[in-house]
Amino acid sequence: MEATYVEATAALPDADEFKLSTAWYESFKQYRELVQSPISKPNRDEIVKLVAKLKAIAWHVDQLRLFSPNEELDDINTSDLKFLLVTFLLAETVASEPDMEKRLGAVKTAMVFWKMFGQQCERLGVAHAEDLAALARDEDSLPQAKKREEKIARFRRSKEFDDKCAYYFAKKRRDVGDEFQWGSYGGTFDEEMERELILSLLRSSVIKSIENMDSAQRELPMLEMLAARGGLNAPPPKMPPPEPTEPWVMRIRNKAELDQLYRQQVFQPSIPLPTMTLAEAAEYEMADMRRRQELEEQKK
Description:
One of its GO terms (molecular function) is protein phosphatase 2A binding. It comes from Noctiluca scintillans. By secondary structure, the protein is mainly α. It is built from eleven helices and no strands.
């Protein structure tokens, strides 16, 4: 955890709720430009930087304990509510990985984030029950007719939420000047409207997570086959590659396992952690020194 602390504080030094909001403002704008509405193919270096910043935000949100397990949706301050979107933004940004050699791992990681986002929304009752149930399902065992019925219903809800978001963003842009300046009010745009904007974003994001999970599950076999062949530029195999195993994400069966996977992806350090304390290391060094001295004595 110490290495994770170093990385998170390096990305967002001395982060309090104010600085966290500033980092969120920058990250959300960058997400919209790079991932949600890209003009051109995403720049991988920028994607990597955005993922690092979003992970740092997630780390600080956890450390500041902005969300309590005992809280209900109405108990969460509007100023904090936007941070529930961090996990979704992480999923979308990671899933935009353009390097095919790294895409398999990125898609698997994104699937964990989408699932975790759904679990967070389910706990607070943010989204429609059918959407949360669809996102929680590991296997699509619904009959085709039911699947089509749910998809149509989701499309209608998604359009409603997206229209609300567009309306509130446009209104905030007119009244405040910057639609992404969270916590700023003016004209007739007030806190209640901002809260409704964030809730609409959350509900729309749950639906997008369902669709993107479905796309990812269809993409996984191809990526696994590509990895089994040795990568995109590997020569054609002499023998047919082995059949891919069951998609990894299908083995996520409970909330505790999902939470552990999420924490491994967000909070794991990118540098090795020490496996012993300083005292243990010193004791080991002393024992090793004594062993070498004994060997030298035996040689005399």
